[in-house]
# Entry
Amino acid sequence: MAETTKTPVTILGLGAMGQALAATFLKAGLPTTVWNRTPGKDAELLAAGAVGAATVAEAIDADGPIIAVLLDHASVHATLDPVADRLAGRQLINLTSTAPNEARELAAWAARHDLHYLDGGIMAVPPMIGQPGASILYSGSRPVFDAHRDILELVAAAEYFGDDAGFASTYDFALLAAMYAMFGGFLHGAAMMRSVGVSAAEYGARAAAWVSAMTQSLPHQGAVIDSGVYTDPVQSIAFHKSALDAITRASRDANVTLDFVAPLKTLLDRQVADGHGALGFECTFEELR
Ligand SMILES: NC(=O)c1ccc[n+]([C@@H]2O[C@H](COP(=O)([O-])OP(=O)(O)OC[C@H]3O[C@@H](n4cnc5c(N)ncnc54)[C@H](OP(=O)(O)O)[C@@H]3O)[C@@H](O)[C@H]2O)c1
# Structure
C-alpha cells in the first residue's frame, strides 16, 4: 500500500454513511478515529481496528483531516461549535448534506476559526461506498482536496469544482431533484398498474428499462436549453401537454391521485395558454428560473 494512504482520519458521525466511510478507510489500512453522539454504534468499527473517541474533543485530537458525516447543517454546528477554539489550522471535510448557503455559512464559520473547509456532496448510498459508481462532488478548499485526494478516492470517485463551498451542494441537490422526480413518477405509475393487477416489482423492472432509455436524451435537451433556441422542436410543448392530459385521464380512470403529475401539467397548461405551444418542451426551463 502506498505511504500516502496511511493518512489518519477522524470520522464524526456513525450513521449508515459514516459507518460505511469508516469501514472503507479501515479496510484500506488508514488509522481511523471515530466518534458518534449516541454511544454504541462503533462496535464493528472498533473490532476492525478503529480508535473510539468518547468525546468530540478526543476525536479531533487525532491527527489528519476531520470528516463530518452528520445529519444536517445544525448538527455540524452542534458538534463543532463547542470545540471551535481547538480547530485552528485543521482541515474539515464536511460530507454532511447541507443546502448551498448552509455550506457557504460553514465555510465562513471555518475561516473565522482558521479551519480549512472542503464541502462534499455524496452521490451514493452506503453500500456503494468504496465501489465503482460511487462519486463525491467537492468544492471549497483546493489545498484540502489536493492534500487528501488519494484517501478520498478510496471511498468514491472524487471531483473538485472550485472554491465556492456551496457549488458541490448545488450540484448534489440538482441531481437529487431529478432523482426524486423520477422516483415520484415511479410511485405514480406503480399505483396505476396496481389498478390492473400488475405488481410494483414487475412494473419497476419495465420502468427501469424505459427510464434508462429516456435519460439518454438529457445531454441533448441540455444543449437545447443552453442554446436558448426552442423554435425547431423534436416534440413541442403542445404535444407534451396532450400527453399529460392523457396521463391525467388515465390516472383518474385508475383512481390514482394527481399529486405527482399535476405540477408538470400545470406548467405545460400555462405555457400553452401563454402561446408557447409550438416551442420545444425544453422551453419550459425558462419559466423555472
Ligand atoms: N444514507 C445515504 O444514502 C446518504 C447518501 C448521500 C448523502 N448522505 C448524507 O450523509 C449524512 C449522514 O447520513 P446517514 O445516512 O449516515 O444518516 P443517519 O444514519 O440518519 O445518521 C445521522 C448521523 O447524524 C448524527 N446526528 C444527528 N443529529 C445530531 C446532532 N444534533 N449532533 C450530533 N450528531 C447528530 C447521528 O447521531 P446519533 O446516532 O447520535 O443519532 C448519526 O450519526 C446526511 O447528511 C445525509 O444526507 C447520506
